[in-house]
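Weekly puzzle thread! Below is a chain. First person to post its structure in token form gets bragging rights.
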Amino acid sequence: MALQDYGKAIASYDDALHDSPKDWDANISRARAFLAADIDSRAIESYLRCIKLRPREAAPYQELAGVYEKQGFLGKALGLYEKALSLEPNPEIYLHMADCYVHQNNLSAAISILTQAKSRLPRADYDVRLGEIYQTLGDVARTRQAWEDALKADPKRDDVRLKLTLVYDRLNRPEEADRMFK
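Winning reply:
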């Protein structure tokens, strides 16, 4: 959607909110439109309004956390993800939290949060993310094992095949690298 289309959408939500300022759907949609248009300051303001309207709703906390994560305010993002998680144990939130911890270079916390989420996540997603953390640590053996486990869990994951090809190349195991896409 072009930026001007977001502007039109935002104007429509503004009109709706003028008549009914507590309309949940218009408020959350407006926040999402600001986010999509990369107008972070207005998205933050709108998500905070949504939180005031429905403090027991997980979505605005999670989405506001995403804005802060994008801006690099990882502590704020983690606090909001935790709040969202307390309201709704959404597996996606665990992945975002793990990413925040990785960006903070707190890899043990990232592994810990993924371990907490293990039973809630699709197995392949868990293993892929775990492999990425091990890769950040420089642990090639654990990276390879995690991605092999991910491929066993979901053999159709070409992104994992590519990751494994690169690991096998790095390990100087060309026959295994070649086998990935055959």
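Puzzle host: Confirmed. Bonus trivia for everyone else. The CA atoms of residues 23 and 167 lie 51 Å apart.
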